[in-house]
């Protein structure tokens, strides 16, 4: 029977040269007996995992993760697929990777993508300049090219003796072909160093988190290989929990005024850039250090530059104030959506 039998799809991941791990993804209509027969036919066995094996990431005290986000992380880990995270800037996409590493007790590697980044740089770099200098000045063993091969973040993740968390941050900053250039390596978890012929094979499949700010559309071929999650902007209840992590001793009444002003600003249609969660945390730090009281905050919004980062937005708020506009002091002023 053809390998691509309708009852089962097999995704092969080479972790060690002598060991093949098969992840079995069942068809919803297939019976357990049919799955077992198909798995044996392909030289493997069906591993039935317990719920405890799936729910490996439970969040951390320092990161407020919603239930769907926790599920997405665990789904990506179970399938051995990259987790693609999208959402507004400042919603905690990058920080999540650090807390996943903390929660799983794994080391973390980071690859921050720039507009000039190339996929091969994540695997390795051949330092030809250093080799040329060593050849000219008689230092170093120029005969051994391996001395001049430096593994990139993805290469180090593959070469690591234990499983690691790898963050590929802001993948949409690179050119359109960048994600496609990573497809084979992310699928097979191996690559070859052309200059030496050495093959680097992952001993343990890394947990890969990829972030995007939607600056560019990502190729469909790349998307098919990912588990996707969009981090929604936190509602008021969730935001209270996030603020409590960073400012646990903030007075309740002051926090109310902070959040009323913050969500009111985000509702203004004139703003080109809405303030983010990270900017809210910074703003609160400024308020606390300056000693601003609840009553003062009811009358005006101090340190507006911590929240608004475009001069057009600052000007729009100034015009609103000059025209006699009122800054809200109660949740009811924001409308029924924000009734507390």
Set out the fold topology.
Blueprint: E1 8-16, E2 19-26, H1 32-41, H2 51-54, H3 67-79, E3 83-87, H4 93-104, E4 108-112, H5 119-123, E5 124-126, H6 128-137, E6 149-151, H7 153-159, E7 165-169, H8 178-181, H9 183-188, E8 190-192, E9 199-201, E10 207-212, H10 220-224, E11 227-231, H11 236-246, H12 252-267, H13 277-290, H14 294-299, H15 311-322
Parallel strand pairs: 3-10, 3-11, 4-7, 7-10
Antiparallel strand pairs: 1-2, 5-6, 8-9
Instruction: Tell how many strands the DSSP assignment holds.
Output: 11
- Structurally, the number of domains stands at 3
- The CATH topology label of the largest domain is Rossmann fold
C-alpha Rg (nearest Å):
25 Å
The assigned structural class equals: alpha/beta
Could you say which overall geometry the principal axes of the C-alpha atoms support?
Answer: elongated
For the largest sheet, list the strands in their spatial order.
Answer: 4-7-10-3-11
Continuous helix count: 15
| Span of the ends, CA to CA | 61 Å
Low-confidence runs: 1-49
CATH H level, superfamily name of the largest domain = P-loop containing nucleotide triphosphate hydrolases
What is the percent of helical residues? 25-40%
What is the CATH architecture assignment of the largest domain?
3-Layer(aba) Sandwich
Encode the helix/strand succession as letters: EEHHHEHEHEHEHEHHEEEHEHHHHH
Report the average pLDDT across residues.
Answer: 84
CATH class of the largest domain: Alpha Beta
Structural notes for this entry:
By secondary structure, this protein is an alpha/beta fold. It folds into three domains: 8-43, no CATH class; 52-231, Rossmann fold (3-Layer(aba) Sandwich), CATH 3.40.50.300; 236-338, no CATH class. The protein is 40% helix and 16% strand. The chain is built from 15 helices and eleven strands. Strands 4-7-10-3-11 form a five-stranded parallel beta sheet, with helices on both faces. Strand 8 and strand 9 (199-201) form a beta hairpin. The longest helix is centred in the C-terminal third of the chain and has 16 residues, at 252-267. Mean pLDDT is 84; it is low at 1-49.
């Amino acid at each position: 029977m053809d390998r691509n039998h309708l009852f089962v799809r097999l995704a092969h991941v080479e972790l060690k040269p002598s060991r093949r791990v098969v992840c079995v993804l069942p068809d919803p209509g297939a019976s357990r007996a049919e799955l077992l027969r198909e798995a044996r036919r392909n030289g493997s066995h069906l591993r039935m995992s317990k719920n405890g094996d799936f729910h490996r990431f439970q969040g951390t005290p320092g990161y407020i993760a919603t239930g769907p986000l926790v599920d997405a992380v665990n789904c990506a880990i179970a399938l051995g697929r990259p987790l693609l995270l999208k959402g507004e800037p400042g919603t905690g996409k990058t920080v999540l990777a650090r807390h996943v590493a903390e929660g799983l007790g794994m080391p973390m590697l980071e690859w921050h993508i720039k507009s000039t980044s190339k996929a091969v740089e994540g695997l390795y770099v051949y330092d030809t300049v250093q080799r040329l200098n060593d050849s000219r000045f008689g230092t170093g063993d120029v005969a051994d090219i391996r001395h001049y091969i430096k593994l990139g973040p993805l290469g180090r993740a593959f070469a690591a003796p234990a499983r690691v968390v790898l963050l590929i941050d802001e993948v949409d900053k690179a050119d359109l072909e960048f994600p496609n250039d990573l497809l084979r390596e992310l699928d097979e978890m191996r690559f070859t160093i052309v200059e030496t012929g050495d093959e680097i094979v992952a001993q343990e499949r890394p947990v890969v988190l990829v972030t995007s700010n939607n600056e560019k559309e990502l190729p469909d071929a790349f998307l098919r290989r990912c588990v996707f999650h969009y981090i929604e902007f936190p509602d008021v209840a969730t935001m209270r929990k996030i603020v409590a992590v960073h400012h646990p001793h903030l007075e309740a009444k002051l926090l109310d005024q902070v959040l009323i002003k913050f969500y009111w600003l985000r509702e203004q249609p004139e703003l080109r850039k809405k303030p983010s969660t990270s900017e809210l945390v910074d703003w609160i730090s400024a308020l606390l250090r300056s000693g601003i009281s609840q009553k003062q905050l009811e009358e005006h919004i101090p340190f507006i530059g911590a929240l608004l980062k475009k001069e057009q937005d600052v000007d729009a708020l100034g015009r609103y104030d000059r025209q006699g506009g009122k800054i809200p002091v109660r949740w009811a002023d924001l409308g029924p959506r924000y009734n507390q």
